[in-house]
Amino acid sequence: MATRITRTGRTAPSIPDFDPVLHQRVRLGIVSALAAGGRTTFNDLKAVLDLTDGNLSVHARKLEEAGYVACHKFFDGRTPRTEYSLTDAGRRALERYLDQMEALLGQVRGDG
Amino acid sequence: MRDRPALRRAAPPAPSDQAAQAHLRFIRETMARTAAFTAVPGWGGVAMGATALAAAALAHQQATVVGWMRVWTAEALVGFAVGAFFTVAKARRHRAPLLSGQGRKFLLGLLPALLAAVALTVAVYGYDVGATDEYFARQNPAATASLRLLPGLWLLLYGAGVAAAGMFSVRLVPMMGSAFLLMGALALLAPAAWGDAFMAAGFGGLQIAFGLLIARQHGG
User: Fold this and answer.
1) Which one of A80, B25, B85, B180 is most buried, counting C-beta atoms within 10 A?
2) Which DSSP helix (H) or strand (E) runs through A95?
């Protein structure tokens, strides 16, 4: 991360390279939920994050494409079920994102 | 204060400190909400219900209050152990942390009612015991305060605990708590001889029915 000098001469917090996949509220919510809840059903994720089916599907697909989330589809009797889990890459990405956020806050507070 | 990250496909702007705080708060709250949401073990409820049905059958055969109390005390311990085992197993299977913030809230919401149940059990049971450990109503156990009050009290207090703790969990959990409250109220109004039937219907039937629903809808 680099330090910037503003026009007023004050040192501004440096800009971390936020992961564009995670730096979005819905996707961040999905990854956070899976980090805490482990393997979680589609319906539970939808309820926890207050999302529509389509919204959750679209963002979960993007996380899948990034390799952050694994999708598990199976049949429970005749009922199709979908569950998601966080991959190791997803967990590392979330940790990196949290570190960047905390570093940013630390700089603003002057202890970084 | 902007608490939403901007919708940009690439090179997202760095958030301000307030936005960063909002991000972290959002992550914390989401994690806490999810952990409690998925922690309730449905199959554990089914197993607890099955042991309660067996206990009800066994308790109903007891001729004395002592034997009856022993059966239900043992069942309470077995039920607690079964519930704990399935909670841990579900958390491990889902690779979820066992006791996060909201998970603790669930436990802490349940505990006061359970402790109240223990205290009231001791108090009510004490009315049946004399100074020399003789039972006042040994010849007529159906008439004792224990048998008359305890099934209703246990169902009511368990229901109160589950309803309170369930505020942090899936909707089915507070619903189960309310069903236990109703069952407990009915048990207190019903004849004492029906106590074991109410215990079987509540700790057995309700627990199994809601356990199956939770297991099917919420991943085990």
Assistant:
1) B180
2) helix A88-109
Cα separation, B166 vs B6, whole angstroms = 35
Mutate to test the interface with B, among A30, A39, A58 (most CBs of B within 10 A): A39
The span from the CA of A91 to the CA of A69, in Å, is 9
pTM: 0.64
pLDDT in tens, A7-54: 444 455 555 678 899 989 999 999 998 987 778 889 888 888 889 999
User: Token match 């996380």: residue?
Assistant: A63
Secondary structure of residue A70 in the 3-state scheme:
strand
Taking CA B30 as the corner, what is the angle to CA B102 and CA A18, rounded to the nearest 5 degrees? 140
pLDDT tens string B1-46:
445 555 545 555 566 777 888 888 888 888 867 765 566 788 999 9
User: SS3 of B141, please?
Assistant: helix
CA triple B16-B20-B23, angle to 5 deg: 140
CA distance A105 to B119: 49
Here the ipTM equals 0.72
Query: Closest Cα of chain B to A19: distance in Å?
Result: 8
Mutual angle of helices B145-165 and B65-93, in 10-degree steps = 20
Contact assignment for A37 to B34 by CB distance below 8 Å? yes
